[in-house]
Structures are given as structure tokens and as C-alpha cells.
Design goal:
With 422 residues, the chain is α/β, with parallel strands linked by helices. The protein folds into 2 domains: 200 residues, no CATH class; 199 residues, Rossmann fold (3-Layer(aba) Sandwich). The protein is built from 11 helices and 19 strands. Strands 1-13-9-10-11-8 form a 6-stranded mixed β-sheet, sandwiched between helices. Strands 16-15-14-17-18-19 form a 6-stranded parallel β-sheet. Helix 10 packs antiparallel against helix 11. It is globular, with a radius of gyration of 24 Å. The mean pLDDT is 92.
Length: 422
């Protein structure tokens, strides 16, 4: 952890002259980032250096005060460094936010966990770090979060600081955040900044305080009617051919996705409906549910549509009980799969080629047996057909008992099969 009250200096490298001996003059709460306000003792120029927490610990960045000089790892250029640099220079990427404070109990000494981020998955992972700081003697945990993520905050937190902004603005420089937080910090004697990990190892007992729901009990796999749940988005699509994926990449590159979004949604909906017909023909008792972002395309009578329009609140918490009673959750790669995979018995994920660099980042594994994990967690490539996807789903439902019996000696499975309709 990093002590910010009283302030202890952090290491920095001047982007102007590469000097390693700065004078730290304070810290700036930018929003997603927390910056050290530095004065170079060699060239006497001011610059900002990221405080090493979360992604900034993996990819440190230094930026001159005028923004023309900077240093960072090339791997972080487009998704981390340039958004920060541009937010400091471009007024269109700067905003003000309503900030409210929720005090549950007061401590003189606190640990501050910054969970602000544009990416939904990054917010979740940052929040999950809270379990390491709960129930410390004489020290309270304070979580700085987007207001729409209040549902994820675990019991035992001392305070919740709400930033009332939509996710798409959480890469912006929040102009009033620094002043408001520094005023708040006058209430405390000692303040530590939590050094959050991006991919912490998590177990069921670790996740429960956040999700407030126990995952599917594999011992009861055959005690409830089979259920398959989709998570469908309007910006990540299940597509069945390389031409469509090429069109999608072109749209993303030139930022014209809105022009062809109806086409991609039509193709995705057609695949989902075809999958539903295959499953229904094999076994009409299998329940099919859709969660995610609602659009104008109907999924047909075979699927129970529980999708919602995006609003101010995160709808994920309304679906947690559904995922916890789902045998298989299905979706295209993305941070929206974190909660469903943590709670469902099994998952099938479709990973486009352009997302292979982020392989498994959006999955929360929970089984101790490696064989069982591979059986219940299936990752398929882009262009997966409805037939192949249905084959995998039916295979999980029909053959689960053989894998589970051979990895759990105390398990007694009823003789249940996925039978075809007569």
C-alpha cells in the first residue's frame, strides 16, 4: 500500500530529461488514475507520474505538464496512456461529476480503494480487491466507485464514495474530484492507497460478499430442470462467418458501427433463434433465457427474454439469481461474462480472433479439478455455428455425470439423460 497521508514520495522518471530524482509535491485524483505531481530536480520542469496501483503498477506513465513529452510502455499506448494524455490536454475529455459520500462507520485511519474505470470488467476486478482490506483492526476501507456499481460493495466497508458518471465518461479527467477528495481527507489521520491487483485469485467464499449469491451447486446439477442462459450485447456480436467479422472490424476501426449495428444484431438474433430451435427439438424441457442489452429484434417464442435497456443503474445484479440457477451460460467474450461465469454451473464463450490477446480475462473459474474446469468451461472460436454451439451445450448436460462422478468420489448421480422429444 502507498501512504498518501502523511504523504510518502513515490519513484518517478522525468519525461523531459530522464532524471530519476524528482521532488514529489502532492497527488492529483484524476479519476481512473491517481497522479503524483512531480518537480524534476535536474531540469526543474514539472510533470505527472502515475501512482503504481492497478494497471498503472504494470504500466507506469510519466507526462510533462504541457503534455508534449511522455514516457510509457508501448503495450499500453492506445488503451491506457493516450486516453490519460488526451484527457489532460483536451477539454472535451474533461468533465465534472456529482460526488457523494456514504459513511457506514467512521475511522481515523482508512485505506482508499479506487475502483473508477471505463471498462466494466476492470471496475469489478478492482472492487474484488476489497476482500483483502476488510476487517483490519482500527482501519476502515473506503471504496471510490461509480455510483451505478453500489450493488457490488461488500458488507464491512467503512465508507463508499460515489462518483455519479456513466461508464463512458470514466476515462475523462474529472475536474472537481481532486478538490473534493482532498477536502474529505482532512477528516482522517492516516490514509493508505490500496494497491489493487487486476486479476486477483478469487474463490466462492471470496466472491459471495460481492455478488450476494451462492453459485450453482454442482451436487444438484440434475435436481432442477435444465436451463441455458445467453448474455447478449449490442456491441459484441455472435457472427457465423469471416466476412461479417471483417465488416465488424472495419466498423470498429472507422467508428461507424452505428451504421451496420442493425445488420449485426439481425445476424446474431438469427443464430440465437436457430440454436433455440435445435435445443428445443432435442429436448423441449430445456429452459432458454436471454439476459443482456435489449434491442428491437425479437428472440422468438422459445426464449424467455429478460434483457433490459441500459440506464443509470447496473442491471447485472438483477440477473445474479438467474445465473446461479443456470446450467450453462453462453456469450461472446467480454467483461459482461465475469458475473455469469462465477455463478453458473458451466459456460460456453465465443472468442473472436481480435480478442485472443485477452483470453480468459473475462472468466471467473471456481472449480478445483482441472478436468472438471475444462469440461464445464468451453471456449469456442469466432464463426461458431448454431449447430456446433448446441452440440457443446447438449454434451455438457448429458455427460456431466460421468466427469463429476470420476472427480468426486462422494457424488451419487441420478440416472438422467438429455433425451430427444418423442
Amino acid at each position: 500500500m502507498i501512504k498518501i497521508k502523511p504523504l510518502e514520495p513515490v519513484h518517478g522518471i522525468c519525461p523531459e530529461c530522464n532524471c530519476h530524482h524528482p521532488e514529489m509535491q502532492g497527488i492529483i485524483f484524476h479519476g481512473k488514475h491517481i497522479l503524483a505531481d512531480m518537480l524534476c530536480t535536474c531540469c526543474e520542469k514539472k510533470y505527472y507520474h502515475t501512482i503504481p496501483v492497478a494497471h498503472d503498477a504494470l504500466f507506469p506513465m510519466a507526462i510533462s505538464q504541457h503534455g508534449k513529452k511522455h514516457s510509457y510502455h508501448p503495450q499500453a499506448e492506445f488503451w491506457l496512456a493516450q486516453p490519460l494524455i488526451q484527457s489532460l490536454k483536451n477539454s472535451k475529455l474533461q468533465t465534472k461529476a456529482q460526488i457523494t459520500f456514504e459513511q457506514i462507520r467512521h475511522y481515523k485511519n482508512i485505506i482508499l480503494l479506487n475502483c473508477l474505470d471505463k471498462c466494466y470488467g476492470h471496475i469489478l476486478y478492482k472492487c474484488f480487491n476489497a476482500y483483502r482490506y476488510l476487517n483490519l483492526p482500527d482501519t476502515g476501507l473506503v471504496m471510490l466507485i461509480p455510483s451505478f456499481m453500489r450493488w457490488i460493495v461488500p458488507d464491512g466497508v467503512a465508507e463508499v464514495w460515489h462518483v455519479h458518471l456513466p461508464a463512458e465518461k470514466l476515462n475523462h479527467y474529472i475536474l472537481n474530484l481532486n478538490t473534493v477528495i482532498h477536502q474529505r481527507l482532512t477528516l482522517y489521520q492516516n490514509v493508505l492507497l490500496a494497491t489493487s491487483y487486476i486479476h486477483p485469485e478469487l474463490e466462492e467464499k471470496t466472491l459471495y460478499p460481492f455478488l450476494k449469491t451462492h453459485p450453482f451447486d454442482l451436487k444438484k446439477f440434475y435436481e432442477t430442470p435444465f436451463r441455458i442462459t445467453f448474455f447478449l450485447r449490442n456491441d459484441r456480436f455472435w457472427l457465423s462467418n469471416d466476412i461479417d467479422y471483417f465488416l465488424l472490424l472495419v466498423c470498429k476501426k472507422y467508428k461507424i458501427l452505428h451504421l451496420l449495428r442493425p445488420y449485426f444484431l439481425f445476424k446474431q438474433t438469427r443464430l440465437v433463434k436457430k440454436f433455440a430451435r435445435i435445443i428445443h427439438k432435442k429436448n423441449s424441457a430445456i429452459e432458454l433465457i436471454a439476459t443482456g442489452v435489449k434491442n428491437s429484434f425479437s428472440l422468438g417464442p422459445l426464449i424467455k427474454d429478460l434483457r433490459k435497456q441500459l440506464g443509470e443503474d447496473d442491471p447485472m445484479h438483477s440477473w445474479t439469481s438467474i445465473y446461479a440457477q443456470t446450467h450453462i451460460v453462453i456469450g461472446v467474450h467480454g467483461s459482461h461474462m465475469l458475473v455469469p461465469t462465477a455463478l453458473s454451473a458451466a459456460f460456453i464463450e465465443i472468442v473472436p480472433h481480435y480478442k485472443l490477446i485477452h483470453y480468459t480475462e473475462d472468466i471467473l473459474f471456481k472449480n478445483s479439478s482441472s478436468r472438471l474446469t475444462l469440461f464445464l468451461g468451453r471456449i469456442l472460436t469466432q464463426c461458431t455455428s448454431a449447430k456446433i454451439l448446441a452440440t457443446h451445450a447438449l454434451h455438457v448436460l448429458e455427460h456431466f455425470k460421468y466427469i463429476y462422478e470420476n472427480t468426486n468420489v462422494n457424488f451419487s448421480c441420478p440416472k438422467t439423460e438429455v433425451r430427444a422429444n418423442k
